[in-house]
Design brief:
- The complex is a heterodimer of chains A (179) and B (470).
- Chain A has 179 residues and is α+β, with helices and mostly antiparallel strands.
- Helix content of chain A is 42%, strand content 12%.
- Chain A is built from five helices and four strands, in the order βαβαααβαβ.
- In chain A, strands 2-3-1-4 form a four-stranded antiparallel sheet, with helices on one face.
- Chain A starts with 8 loop residues before the first strand and ends with a strand.
- In chain B, 66% of the residues lie in helices and 0% in strands.
- By secondary structure, chain B is an all-alpha fold.
- In chain B, 47% of the residues are buried.
- In chain B, α3 runs antiparallel to α4, α10 crosses α11 and α11 runs antiparallel to α13.
- The N terminus of chain B is likely disordered.
- Classes of the chains: A alpha+beta (179), B mainly alpha (470).
- Chains A and B meet through α1, β2, α2, α3 and α4 of A and α1, α5, α7 and α15 of B.
């Protein structure tokens, strides 16, 4: 689905994380909302600088863990008490202490799946194509350069004005990101 | 989420400590590196460096050993487990020894990647990828043994709870069943943890690969990673949560492995201190294996500025500490057998030290308790060669420990009429050394085709990676 804008947006390149964070903060203060930054490693505080504060991921992982425990315990209860009860010397069917290890392992397994697949889903990955890859120098985002983007769909985005704004932040280069 | 993530090193992590001599520490990364040079140095090993003759020789030997394993497995499937030395009363022999040995080795990888992450130990950064790979390959080797030990491995899926026409369920009250779940979960979570750590590095390789097939291959596995700040934030959150999950997991796995023994009534096995004793032993064996592998690799690929003396020294310290815990457990075993007042328990200890397998017990003491005492000396901890030799002692010692626990406890049953002796056959040895071949084969492929050091985490170690607040 392609929005009706000429380009995807603008991309400004910086060569150290401190100038990127400063630029991101100024961009946000100028009222831009659809901004993102691209870095070769996680930069502390960058997510706040682009105005991104919260992730639901921990709750998803907690839900996964609880689901795993309930699944594990429920399965063992069903198998041992309801579906195939075996009376061995009158020992209780609901021998729950023996079921803790498997319930625990399944809780970890489900929580780990929730962490990985939840993270990928929230990040909309895998996404083999993205417009920023069209910018030649963007390959350096996985090496040693730092990028800041403003999307054309941002309500405040005006192609020339935004470009001038970004250039005023003293980046190495500002590029158009074609679709 | 705490925004001050432990993945990021302490502000002072890279500067040498105060110049007071004693507190001064070797840095975790050599001087003179930039984001670009780190990227180039590690990715070049994978992308452009010509495969060395040494790699081919090493891979060839490992591959030949793996072929020997396949031969041993093939003959096993034709003839059955009778080709092994297992007998009555020693029904658990090489299979369980090797299973426990391998799975213990794997634990250091998880410890380095998860527990040291939570403890904010930035020195883990250059060895975690490597150690995680070691975990995966060790678990793969470990899994083979119980699988083959069931006798008819093509029915191994009976261990899983699945709806079947026989209307049967596995025995969920059995520690062997717990093992199935623990090891399967451990293998899965280790694989996910390792892969997700690799994703940003796959993106680096994708952007730096010269030929199109490699670009496509690395691009495929990079999932389209582009280093977005939002992605990094969720990524770090996920990674930290996974570390938090992997930590209790790794402790639970070896606890459950020890339950295989501790919940039985065999003298020498039926003790409550088995879980912590086994976990400490696993970490001990695992660090020995990390050193065994890291010392030659660092030399072969000239990675002395990434895997520094400080890494080797720290690993030596962890080995010394866990070795002392294991030593304490050995002492407690002796005490326990005496204090139990039980004739069978007392006999087991006596038999270990002075019975027909006496030499395995004393060799074990030499390897696991005496040899590592050299690690008290800084000179030893900072000499790669001596460290390597000590690590080899521990590798052997930890294998012997399982031999002593399993074979020596089993071969004297309660009734003297059911006493027996055990000796492994050549098939036992071929399978065991064969799995070492499998392990090394996978490891050789790993260091050739994947970045053995986490590139993006190494970048965060540089002082330039810190944001200067005004």
């Amino acid at each position: 689905m392609r929005p009706k804008t000429e380009t995807w947006g603008l991309l400004a390149e910086f060569d150290d994380p401190t100038s990127l964070i400063e630029a991101a903060e100024k961009t946000r203060e100028a009222g831009y909302t659809r901004i993102d930054a691209f870095t070769p490693f996680p930069v502390e505080g960058l997510h706040e600088a682009i105005g991104f504060h919260h992730t639901k991921l921990p709750m998803i992982v907690l839900a996964g863990g609880i689901l795993g425990f309930v699944t594990g315990f429920g399965m063992q209860y069903f198998a041992t008490v309801i579906h195939y009860p075996l009376n061995i010397g009158g020992r209780p069917l609901n021998s729950w202490p023996a079921w803790i290890p498997i319930s625990f392992e399944l809780a970890i397994l489900f929580a780990a799946f929730a962490a990985i697949f939840g993270m990928l889903a929230l990040n909309r990955l895998p996404e083999p194509y993205h417009p920023v890859f069209n910018v030649g120098r963007f390959v350096l985002a996985t090496r040693d350069q730092f990028f800041l983007s403003i999307e054309a769909s941002d309500p405040k985005f005006r192609r020339d004005e935004t470009r001038r704004f970004l250039e005023a932040l003293r980046p190495l280069e500002v590029s158009d990101v074609p679709w | 989420m705490d925004p001050r993530d432990p993945r990021l090193p302490h502000p002072q992590a890279n500067q040498p400590g105060p110049q007071t001599g004693r507190l001064e520490r070797a840095p975790t990364i050599g001087p003179g590196h930039s984001f670009g040079s780190i990227t180039d140095k590690i990715s070049t090993i994978v992308l452009t460096r010509k495969t060395s003759g040494g790699w081919f020789i090493g891979f060839g030997i490992a591959f030949a050993m793996m072929m020997m394993m396949l031969y041993a497995i093939g003959w096993l499937l034709i003839k059955g487990v009778g080709i092994w030395g297992n007998n009555n009363p020693v029904g658990w022999a090489f299979d369980i020894i090797n299973f426990v040995w391998w799975i213990g080795i794997g634990h250091a990888g998880t410890l380095i990647s998860a527990i040291l992450l939570l403890l904010r130990q930035s020195w883990r950064t250059s060895i975690n990828r490597f150690a995680e790979a070691m975990t995966l390959f060790a678990v793969a080797c470990a899994g083979l043994f119980p699988l083959l030990h069931v006798g008819r491995p093509w029915f191994a899926y009976w261990l899983l709870p699945y709806p079947n026409t026989m209307s049967l369920w596995p025995q969920f009250r059995s520690p062997l069943m717990w093992d199935v779940f623990a090891v399967a979960t451990y293998a899965t979570v280790s694989l996910l943890f390792w892969y997700i750590g690799l994703v940003p590095d796959f993106a680096t390789l994708r952007d730096r690969a010269k030929s199109r097939p490699w670009k496509i291959l690395y691009g495929f596995f990079s999932l389209g990673w582009r280093g977005s700040a939002k992605h990094w934030y969720r990524y770090e959150s996920a990674y930290l949560l996974l570390a938090g999950l992997a930590t209790p997991l790794v402790l639970s796995v070896h606890t459950i492995v020890s339950f295989d023994f501790a919940t039985s009534v065999i003298p020498g096995w039926h003790t409550t201190f088995f879980p912590p004793y086994f976990v400490a032993g696993a970490i001990y064996a695992g660090f020995a294996m990390v050193l065994t592998l890291a010392i030659p690799v660092r030399k072969a690929f000239g990675l002395q500025d990434f895997i520094t003396m400080r890494h080797l020294e720290n690993m030596g310290k962890v080995m010394l500490t866990t070795g002392l815990i294991v030593g304490y457990a050995y002492v407690m075993e002796v005490f326990y057998s005496w204090y139990s007042g039980n004739i069978y328990e007392m006999y087991v200890m006596f038999n270990r030290a002075f019975g027909p397998y006496w030499w395995t017990y004393w060799l074990l003491i030499v390897c696991n308790i005496v040899a590592p005492q050299a690690l008290w000396f800084k000179k030893v901890r900072t000499s790669p060669l001596i460290l390597f030799v000590i690590a080899m002692f521990v590798n052997v010692g930890m294998w012997l420990e399982r031999f002593v626990i399993i074979v020596v406890s089993l071969h004297r049953d309660f009734l003297p009429s059911s006493w027996g002796m055990y000796s492994p056959t050549r098939w036992d040895f071929m399978l065991f050394f064969g799995t070492i071949g499998l392990f090394l084969t996978l490891l050789f492929l790993f260091i050739r085709f994947l970045p053995m050091i986490s590139i993006f985490e190494m970048r965060t170690l540089l002082p330039e990676a810190q944001v200067h607040e005004d």
